[in-house]
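Entry 14. Ran structure prediction on the chain below.
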Amino acid sequence: MRFPPRAHRIGAAAALLSALLVGGTVSATAADAAAPASVVSTRATVSAASVGSICYSDLPSQAYDTLDLIASGGPFPYSQDGVVFQNREGVLPSQSSGYYHEYTVITPGSSTRGARRIVTGQKTDEDYYTSDHYVTFDLIDFDC
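Output, structure tokens:
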């Protein structure tokens, strides 16, 4: 299993700008080609609106543990940790396959992996947190 490099953290503003500039475009699909422009535009707006931001200090304590494990390369508590996140929901900026990887944020009292995850992007070292199993994501701001 390959883990993305986490050599350094960049400021949230730079990460958000990078995500918007590099991956903020909506790639055309066959469905988009058949849809009116207003529908395609609405899809892009809904997707972009689903990515917010969260201060590092506002994360649950278990997210700190996960981020530390990512930085050190593991070991991870679940065999699924570190697998490629496909972004099937289309909430995160569009990137090539293998760009995103997902990691479990342990939920106390849960007998399963729960719904909380950290999803990392390998090229610009952006980290996203989701508490609702990929419905919404927050870009982690390490500067606050």
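The first strand starts at residue 51 and ends at 55. Will compare against last week's run tomorrow.
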